[in-house]
Amino acid sequence: MINTNYQKLPGSYLFSTIAKKVKEYQEKHPEKEIVRLGIGDVTQPIAPTILTAMHHAVDEMGKAETFRGYAPDLGYDFLRETIAKQDYKARGCEIEADEIFISDGAKSDSGNIQEIFAETIRIAVCDPVYPVYVDSNVMAGRCGTYDEKRGMWSDVIYMPCTRENSFIPAFPQETPDVIYLCLPNNPTGTTVPKTVLQDWVDYANKQGAVIIYDAAYEAYITESGVAHSIYECEGARECAIEIRSFSKNAGFTGVRLGFTVIPKELKRDGVSLHGLWARRHGTKFNGAPYIIQRAGEAVYTVDGQREIKEQIAYYMRNAATIKEGLSDAGYEVFGGVNAPYIWLKTPDQMTSWEFFDRLLEKAAVVGTPGSGFGPSGEGYFRLTAFGSYENTLKALERIRTTNL
Amino acid sequence: MINTNYQKLPGSYLFSTIAKKVKEYQEKHPEKEIVRLGIGDVTQPIAPTILTAMHHAVDEMGKAETFRGYAPDLGYDFLRETIAKQDYKARGCEIEADEIFISDGAKSDSGNIQEIFAETIRIAVCDPVYPVYVDSNVMAGRCGTYDEKRGMWSDVIYMPCTRENSFIPAFPQETPDVIYLCLPNNPTGTTVPKTVLQDWVDYANKQGAVIIYDAAYEAYITESGVAHSIYECEGARECAIEIRSFSKNAGFTGVRLGFTVIPKELKRDGVSLHGLWARRHGTKFNGAPYIIQRAGEAVYTVDGQREIKEQIAYYMRNAATIKEGLSDAGYEVFGGVNAPYIWLKTPDQMTSWEFFDRLLEKAAVVGTPGSGFGPSGEGYFRLTAFGSYENTLKALERIRTTNL
């Protein structure tokens, strides 16, 4: 009577295994100070303008005349309209407020969005990528069987992204129904030019596929010619769902807020995906907290924008520091220009986990093994720019001076 | 390629239809002041002790040394331990902190919990009941076909709760795999003695069924001999999942916090349901906001408890007022003693919707048609005690003096 699909998932989640290894190391070496550049959690505190907005909203909740009960399932208009205006219309994307669904975060949305599709769809994912896309589909019974040795699911279409193709996925040979694109990519820290994204939109429209576009890192884009939203591409309203997060641009990992955009034109089998997602939200979700939605709104104020840009610049200085430092030390490094992740090729043909173990043992630095993000991540390693600058320098110094 | 199960759901959600009718009425009669005793949303502001805790937590998020990023997926220990101690151990229930899963609310948990079961399970529900249990199972393809005329799904086991059986469900003739019990019940406002609940636990253990026990209204129980938690019953650790909410006891409808308890002994097909739910949380959820979890903790302080008890007493005075008033006016009324809902038999054999329309048209009072909660709700009507005392009196006066 249980959902046996859950049993198919490999025993332990990537970050649990890392946590366990780190704990064991610390117990064996209590004197060592471990520097963590593993999990993608931010470290800078919430910006002052956002704090003020939250304090104000807390006060409102304490008075009968300004108290707010159930929020609208799909989000407060004040936030949806702000997003439509500043994230979309300001970039020339025709997205209306009522096409934006506010949620408690991009992880929930990334995990739940598969529900509106049939059990029989074929999904395609970049390889390596954020594990939630595949795992949530496995739990829904979509991915076939797992080949432990290859680290691959029989029914998933993998699109390898490696240094050989400059981390730009090729169109798959089999035809997917749903294509997950995370750009800028987690974990590789790389992205694609807007022209390439346009090719993907054209491909999806030609094949009738739906693109689920995870733009959680768009605020880190520094290069021109890179799209911040998939709706900058022509025809995207007919094929793309976009998921956004406040976790990385405004430090909301512990505040929890995100949103998903589904244009009204997006239909499959004659049915509006907007309507399906609205029904899902209405039935299994009860809105993001009022206080947190006010925090989200504050992100878009002039002061809020200035403050979060400083935070992003802080993290991107870390990224540049890691990238340069490792490059000087002879490592082959990628990413870090349009994303807060550095992706490095492990030296001496070490596996990702071998490099993880050595880095921890010899330098007391924690990163994330690339193989945890998919089979093509093997032989790579992820470092994040989300630490403090001091810790970033410390980690770098240790990596450079240790014979790994 | 879409999930066609969504298409099987009847067109419009109960509360959307109500909202539409109310809007039309107001447009037609702009001078009328409508009193809303329909949707179960609270009106009292958040208690002072909880506000203080939230302000403090907001301040913590603004300083690097106290900032909190990702929360543990399953909740912060400070909250899980407080709940284990005060909601369970204080009542003699052996529930450990690590059996408690913190979430963004009971609606999400009620909707998502079905995921850990196979697609082939049979569910049983009290009739009438909170619509999310059935709807979320329909979306997962479990409920067969809908008979619009009877308002029933072919594969759902309905357990009628009417005045004829004092709203106490009988064991079903068919054997369910999962039994949803919402006690005290929404919408009938009634509950069962602990001895009856013990019978249900024994029944579930004998049949190998799992009980999903929604205890969202437990704080409203005033009578002794009624269980606040299903774990007060012997053997419940082997068969029951309990879902709790902060929405109704502490006014968190717009704050969003809830939790689900799954004891470690609860296994089916040899698999721990605790492990399955942990995996679901870990994959598709990223923890409730730190600020909100601190708010939840404050609910359990001495001052917090005193303050929320005053709010509950305020609403229960409304309940008693409605109940007495309607009873005096010749209505047959139920509930309102252990729950904030009044359930009344419509007069003159009116249907639920006929009574809704008349009440709106003639008295400008909004309630909820009982048939919206299940076929056996036909001929009944729900009023909630969550309005202000003044509005409650106003509604009552109108109902008493109007010839409906």
Task: Report how far apart the termini of chain A are.
Answer: 49 Å
Averaging pLDDT over every residue of chain A, what do you get? Answer: 96
What is the count of β-strands of chain A?
Answer: 17
Strand order of the largest sheet of chain A: 2-10-9-8-7-3-6
Q: Which structural traits does this protein have?
A:
2 domains; 7-stranded mixed β-sheet; Aspartate Aminotransferase, domain 1; 12 helices; Aspartate Aminotransferase, domain 2; 404 residues; homodimer; 15% strand; alpha/beta
Secondary structure elements and pairings:
Two copies of one chain form a homodimer.
Chain A (H helix, E strand, L loop, with lengths): L4 H4 L5 H15 L6 E2 L11 H14 L15 H12 L11 E4 L2 H7 L10 E5 L4 H8 L6 E2 L4 E2 L3 E4 L17 E5 L11 H14 L2 E5 L25 E6 L12 E4 L5 E2 L2 E2 H12 L5 H10 L2 H27 L4 E3 L5 E5 L6 H12 L1 E2 L1 E2 L10 E5 L4 H13 L3
Parallel strand pairs in A: 1-15, 3-6, 3-7, 7-8, 8-9
Antiparallel strand pairs in A: 2-10, 4-5, 9-10, 11-12, 13-14, 14-17, 16-17
Task: Describe the protein.
The structure is a homodimer of 404-residue chains. With 404 residues, chain A is of the alpha/beta class. Chain A folds into 2 domains: 5-45 and 305-401, Aspartate Aminotransferase, domain 1, CATH 3.90.1150.10; 51-302, Aspartate Aminotransferase, domain 2, CATH 3.40.640.10. In chain A, 37% of the residues lie in helices and 15% in strands. The first copy, chain A, contains 12 helices and 17 strands. Chain A has helices at residues 5-8, 14-28, 48-61, 77-88, 106-112, 132-139, 194-207, 273-284, 290-299, 302-328, 352-363, 389-401; strands spanning 35-36, 100-103, 123-127, 146-147, 152-153, 157-160, 178-182, 210-214, 240-245, 258-261, 267-268, 271-272, 333-335, 341-345, 365-366, 368-369, 380-384. In chain A, the strands form 5 sheets. A 7-stranded mixed sheet of chain A has the order 2-10-9-8-7-3-6, with helices on both faces. In chain A, a hairpin with a 5-residue loop joins β13 (333-335) and β14. In chain A, α3 (48-61) runs antiparallel to α9 (290-299), α4 runs parallel beside α9 and α10 (302-328) packs parallel to α12 (389-401). The longest helix of chain A has 27 residues, at 302-328. In chain A, 55% of the residues are buried. At the A-B interface, α3, α5, α6, α8 and α9 of A face α3, α5, α6, α8 and α9 of B.
